[in-house]
Amino acid sequence: MGTSSSSRGTRSRTPKVPSSVDRTEATSSSQGGTNNKPPKQQKLPPIPAPEGGQRFRSTRTNLRKYIETSEKRYLARSLKNYVSKGLGGSKNATRRMAPSRAVASNLLGFIQEYKDVGADQVLERFNLTQLSGKSAIEVLQTLTDLITPPGGPVDEAVPRNALLESIVELEQIEKLAFEDLTVEQLESLFADFIARTIEKRLLHTIGERIFTESKSPDYLPNIEQQIVDYIRGRVKDSMSQHFKTPRTKASIEKVVEKIYANSFSLLEVLTKEEI
Fold first, then answer.
1. Residue ranges per structural domain of the chain
2. 81 contacts 58 by C-beta, under 8 angstroms
3. Backbone angles phi, psi at 182, to 5 degrees
4. Helix axes 183-206, 98-117, angle to 10 degrees
5. pLDDT in tens, 124-182
């Protein structure tokens, strides 16, 4: 993948939940200026060596079968085993996403403000008034710099890459002014971001070699997108249950936690066709 580095994976003795996760919090700081680079050329931080192990063997095996056959049942089994066997269930999986949850909470807060007060006032509240009248992609890329939490390479790279990619993939984003964005588009961006953070954590965990050993490099972006699309379906199902109208920082964080937890729980469930 273009945003991750090739490696074998970490060893099975790696603890399922890093001890530093519970202490991870996002901090926001306003950054002046705008990003005028074309979105697809923006440099993304590298994602370092993955953290696999024997407990992820079934995840790798089924994903390799999916890459070779394109049978969705193998993708479903791979993701189920990733959550249940590799990460120890949806609760542990959600805890591991703490840095991404912090970014998701800030993103959801931004979306809620946009919905409540409109484009101009939300820029003022986020200290981004210098972007008034700018394009949607320019505002959202600058917002990415603002809400991406500091931390270790993985903590920063996963949510940052996920958000930048979600922005670029937002329908008609290159033609829109920021004030013309609809709430539905921003909520779609939010769902895509969550799905991509889960996908990138998966790829970080199992390592990139599984792809390069199975298909030509030209095929890899299609596989990545297929994984994202599958996960996004579960995220949207989760959002339909938990995406209320949070008003406080605490309630926003709770909604985000529930969406991640329920998304992971749904990934553990196989349909009759997937068993």
1. 54-267
2. yes
3. -95, 160
4. 170
5. 999 999 999 999 999 999 999 999 866 567 777 899 999 999 999 988 788 899 999 99
